[in-house]
Design goal:
332 residues, Arc Repressor Mutant, subunit A, Rossmann fold, three-stranded antiparallel sheet, binds S-adenosylmethionine
Length: 332
């Protein structure tokens, strides 16, 4: 059943076909991997010119280029191909709005998806390590894109949490520092610590410096499953980190966060939670399969799981602040 305009209706046959249709997906991912869009750049180039630059087979490449024209990512005039304005903006590497790194991540995960049937039959996962561990450079590039996207939503998120002001925030697994930076920009007296793996913090150092917040944001390198978190903090944030971990790892991490909080302090968990039936939100049900296929032991959890972790860790109150997205524990 599809939910549209509040009405449930059956899927049409065309929609079923559409769901099973991935040709364009792989055409796009391959074009980004080959870096077709950057190779064309702002010029208009023949298939031969592009093939020479890419060391590719011209007749074969032409098929890909024509499909990209039909997908509105390239244009074609006579024998020459150019980038569409969208292609130029988002798929040419030197563009400030390049999002190709995210697509490269999807491409790197392609073979794991090919093993989905085997995974479902046996319960054994295809990935022994997440791509971020096997290819840290790709991981850092993806975080750069996520940082750019997150900059748009970060300030509103900070405001919705209604901080008092001069608090001390720990952004656990804070990545590029997207949230810590947004929070410090919204609350001028806030001080923050971004705790992350040393490799990730190289990027964070740059984003914090670019934001001019070196004096208010401290970087703490470490492994949050092994190392102490420091403190005491008034607010601990866990944004998009728990779905990479097992249930028990999350329980242990939330206990650690509890210890690092001052009395009255809050733990905010922002994640992609499934609803209690497991069948929604729709995007998250597919994301749960993605996590199954592409991580060694991650999972999408439910709000009730988070409430259980918080209660067991000692939080006096555990409340869902935003549906299937944000849970808060208060150390009463
Ligand atoms: C999906 S990113 C989320 C980044 C950020 N919290 C956000 O919401 O934009 C997950 C982050 O967790 C970090 N991370 C993963 N495992 C970690 C560990 N064991 N200790 C510290 N950081 C870790 C990664 O380096 C990465 O920055």
């Amino acid at each position: 059943m599809l939910e549209g305009f509040g009405v449930s209706r059956e899927l049409s046959l065309a929609e079923i076909f559409q769901l099973g249709y991935y040709w364009e997906t792989k055409i796009l991912l391959t074009a980004v991997k080959l870096d077709v869009f950057s190779t064309i750049g702002e010029q208009s180039r023949t298939a031969k010119d592009i093939a020479d630059r890419l060391h590719a087979d011209e007749p074969t490449l032409s098929l890909l280029l024509n499909a990209l024209v039909a997908m509105k990512l390239l244009t074609k005039e006579g024998d020459s191909y150019g980038n569409s304005s969208t292609g130029l903006k988002h798929l040419v590497r030197h563009s400030a709005q390049y999002i190709g790194h995210l697509l490269l991540l999807h491409d790197a995960e392609w073979n794991n998806w090919g093993q989905l049937e085997e995974t479902i039959r046996t319960g054994r996962r295809a990935a022994d390590r997440h791509v971020f561990e096997t290819d840290p450079e790709l991981g850092s590039n993806v975080l750069t894109v996520l940082n750019r996207i997150g900059q748009q939503s970060g300030p509103d998120f900070a405001k919705r949490l209604k901080l008092v002001g001069n608090e001390r925030l720990l952004d656990l697994g804070g990545g590029a520092g997207t949230n810590a930076i947004a929070f410090c920009q919204v609350y001028s007296e806030l001080g923050a610590t971004v705790f992350d793996l040393p490799a990730t913090l190289k990027l964070t150092e740059k984003t914090v410096k670019d934001a001019g917040l070196e004096s208010r944001i401290t970087l703490q390198p470490g492994d949050f499953n092994r190392d102490q978190l420091g403190g005491p903090y008034d607010l601990v944030l866990m944004s998009d980190i728990l779905h990479y971990q097992t249930f028990q790892m999350n329980q242990d991490l939330i206990k650690k966060a509890f210890v690092s909080l001052a009395p009255g302090g809050r733990l905010i968990i922002k994640d992609r939670f499934l609803d209690e039936t497991g069948t929604g939100p729709a995007w998250t049900t597919a994301f749960a399969v993605h996590i199954l296929v592409n991580t060694q032991s991650g999972g999408c959890y439910r709000i009730s799981d988070a409430v259980q972790w918080l209660t067991k860790a000692g939080f006096g109150s555990a409340v869902e602040l935003e549906k299937t997205a944000v849970v808060q524990g208060v150390k009463t």
